[in-house]
Amino acid sequence: MKRLVIVALLAITHTALAQDAPKWKGKFEQLDQKLPTPNEYRSGSGAPGPKYWQQKADYVINVELNDDNQSITGSETITYTNNSPDVLKFLWLQLDQNNLAKGSMTEATRTSAVRDSAAVKVAASTFNLYDFDGGFKIKSVKATDGSALPFIINYTMMRIDLPQPLNPGQKVSFSVAWNYNINNGLHQRERTQYEFFPDDGNYAYVIAQWFPRMCVYDDYEGWQNKQFLGQGEFALPFGDYKVKITVPADHIVGATGSLQNASQVLTKEQLDRFEKAKSSFDKPVIIATQDEAVDREKTKVKEKKTWEFHADNVRDFAFATSRKYIWDAQAVKIGNKTPLAMSFYPKEGNPLWQIESTKAVKNALEVYSRMTIDYPYPVAISVHAAHQGMEYPMICFNYGRPARDGSYTPQVRKGMVGVIVHEVGHNFFPMIVNNDERQTTWMDEGINTFVQLVTEIERYPDIDFDRGKPAALVPYLKGDQNMMRPLMTNSEQVIQFGAEQYAKAAAGLFMLRETVMGRDLFDRSFKEYARRWAFKHPKPADFFRTMEDASAVDLDWFWNGWFYTTDVNDQSIDQVKWYKMRTEEKSIEKDVKAKAGDLSGKDGDKKFDNFNNGPEPFSLVNTDPRMYGEFRGTIDDKAIMGKLQGKNIYEITLSNKGGLVMPVVIQWTFKDGSKEIERLPAEIWRINETKVTKVFVKEKEVESIVLDPNVELADVNASDNVFPKKEGSSKFGDFKNKSK
Questions:
Q1: In whole angstroms, what is the distance from residue 345 CA to residue 341 CA?
Q2: Exposure on the CB side of residue 320, measured as CA atoms within 13 A
Q3: Distance between CA 181 and CA 97 in Å, rounded?
Q4: Crossing angle for the helix pair 540-549 and 519-533, nearest 10 degrees?
Q5: Distance between CA atoms of 28 and 25, rounded to whole angstroms?
């Protein structure tokens, strides 16, 4: 009879679980069906394959900036190396300035609406009322022998037909001449602009997307053919640059690369300070002072000078120039190199920029180098530009301006430091680990925002940075699902760009590091990804596969949920039962029959909504010999019972209401006031993706239980995370946002 009762009890429990189990939705399905098949170019481990290849584009450029009419005139010779196994009959170049041309695709597809009592500035932008002649004016495209090459322009793309097919391993050189008008940043908010300062009648220029640039041709999709519509950024091949920049003789120029003719463009005093900065590791050296900048603002010479810069193995080139610039620099020790951290800023940026900018550059270089690879370039530059935040190799443009009297709020400092760390960090993603921003934005913006957060937490403990923390993402996750897009969405279709491609992607990596994998495993895997793909072109599959390959952690469930869906994490505590083992002998038949209802989850009218009624008793009986089957040995029943003697046993039923499978983080608070955090892997949901029950054995009596107490998993509803339930509890009320 004993055996029959036990078997019946097991059958009841199994049946209850089967009835509760919902239709399986494949949350733990492997990514094999979604990721491209590994091949000789990209391996299943996430590393470049034995036949991985990429193209190379070298540039020799001469450019002149006209300070009288705010225009650019340039000519370039491009040498393109075909390292692919394919024969190329034509080449594609990017003409991103055409984004600002009249009748552009961007203008035609930009949606708008009339709003009553809108500010004139808003209306001018909405109705495109600025009289600006934007876009490249291509003057010529020629072969090396001077003959014209046929070309056709398709919005922001230009195709050049080659006179001879370009075979694998061959090179071709050709030249392009062009000019264009620089946009006023006050009118057209772009990644490149000029700013006019009416107080002194001068201009400051941050110049990017200023020359026709080669598109990427790769093993994944051939030619990159996605038009630039303003949101999705740039995909570019690596190459070497030699650039001569002609500007007014009293301008100070900062640019990608190493300055080649410092003795010709700097005064003796500036040259001496420049040399001193190369060995100044404790603080910045001011190379061009504020007093010198004020004098230049007044004189406005008409003569011109040409600054020459060289840059090797970079994917782009940008520069900034103004007679208003103050310039400081400091050496940074990175491995066996000493790159210069530098800042260029007008007096309107002081005193904040002199205090914070180069320090932020240095902090970013040091932390990013530790997390990825040692910074390989000779300089890293931060340039002050109004309402800007944009990155290029070795140089970036950043906002953060004090009030006219030089005062600034903590929020202004926070924003400025954050944007500088972020944009300098882009040197690593995507300027070195060179993903395609036009197609997969999170691979640079999200990954970069994550390392930015690590830098901010380590180097700025006095500032409460939260972008990228899971808790800060909760308001977005609680929003309208119709306004959300999965991270694996092309950038031009994303609605909430910052919340998703920046913050959500960063929060996902933060959770992987802090909760799912742990810092050591994550950091080793993340560094391996950077090492494998430095100066190469990774795709999402390469990142996903490398993180798993280097950690032995199956993360397909995480990539599936966090990157391919808009599911959210909403776990709840449905029920908690408190038990203690009886000490007296009981009849097994009577005991099992009495408790069968409890153990099967059917307790009639009995409620388990608090601990006030004390623990429920249960009994254990000696193991029936028939349960050992073929085994000859037995277990020590009394010793096992002794392990449970006096212990508090809690059976918890949890639900997953948001659809996203995540680890379970439980905070136990005991009656003596002590606390314990217990972490269960996400795989606890692998059999039943919506409901699980688990038993915990505790020495001490529990007073309360909380799920995700520090909001490290971005649970969107705190009210059902607590037992016993507290009326009015909220994620941002009872539970603090704590960062590890």
A1: 14
A2: 32
A3: 9
A4: 130
A5: 9
Rg of the chain on CA atoms, in Å: 32
The pairing of beta strand 137-143 with beta strand 88-94: unpaired
Long-range contacts of 214-217 (CB under 8 A, 24+ apart): 214/55, 214/57, 214/78, 214/80, 214/91, 214/92, 214/93, 214/94, 214/239, 215/91, 215/92, 215/93, 215/94, 215/157, 216/55, 216/436, 216/537, 217/55, 217/84, 217/88, 217/92
Neighbours of 714 (CB within 10 A): 28
Element spanning 679, H or E: strand 675-680
Taking only the tens place, the pLDDT of each residue in 229-286 is 888 899 999 999 999 999 999 999 999 999 999 999 999 999 999 999 999 999 999 9
CATH class belonging to 55-224: mainly beta
Pairing mode, if any, of strands 395-398 and 379-384?
A: parallel
- Smallest Cα–Cα separation from 373: which of 317, 331, 434, 320? 434
345-to-286, 328, 352 alpha-carbon distances in Å: 11, 9, 10
- Reading the block at residue 597, the tokens are 């209802």
Beta bridge pairs of residue 59: 78, 241
Residue 264 CB neighbours (<10 A): 12
Distance of alpha carbon 437 from alpha carbon 316, whole angstroms: 13
SS (HEC) of 604-649: CCCCCCCCCCCCEEECCCCCCHHHHCCCCCCCCHHHHHHHHCCCEE
d(C-alpha 237, C-alpha 720), whole Å: 51
Dig out the tokens for 501 from the structure: 């491609």
Which CATH architecture does the domain made up of 34-52+435-566 adopt?
A: Orthogonal Bundle (1.10)
Q: Other CB atoms closer than 10 Å to residue 113's CB: what's the count?
A: 6
Q: What angle is formed at CA 64 by the lines to CA 399 and CA 426, rounded to 5 degrees?
A: 35
Whether 55-224 and 34-52+435-566 are alike in CATH topology: the answer is no
Domain boundaries, the chain: 2-25+570-723, 34-52+435-566, 55-224, 248-402
Tell me the pairing of strands 217-218 and 222-223. antiparallel
**Nearest-5° Cα angle at 101, 98 to 103:** 115
Lateral strand order in the sheet of 395-398: 285-288, 326-331, 340-345, 379-384, 395-398, 389-392
Q: State both tokens at 505.
A: 């992607």
Mean pLDDT per segment of 10 residues, for the chain of length 740 residues?
A: 39 44 76 93 98 98 98 98 98 96 84 85 80 94 98 97 98 98 92 96 98 97 91 93 98 98 98 98 98 96 97 98 98 98 98 98 98 98 96 98 97 98 98 94 97 98 97 96 94 92 98 97 98 98 98 97 97 96 61 45 59 93 94 94 95 96 98 97 96 97 97 95 75 39
Q: What Cα–Cα distance (Å) separates residue 411 from each residue in 43, 407, 418?
A: 46, 12, 10
Q: Which residues does residue 305 pair with via DSSP β-bridges, in sequence order?
A: 247
Helix (H, G, I), strand (E, B) or coil at 342: strand
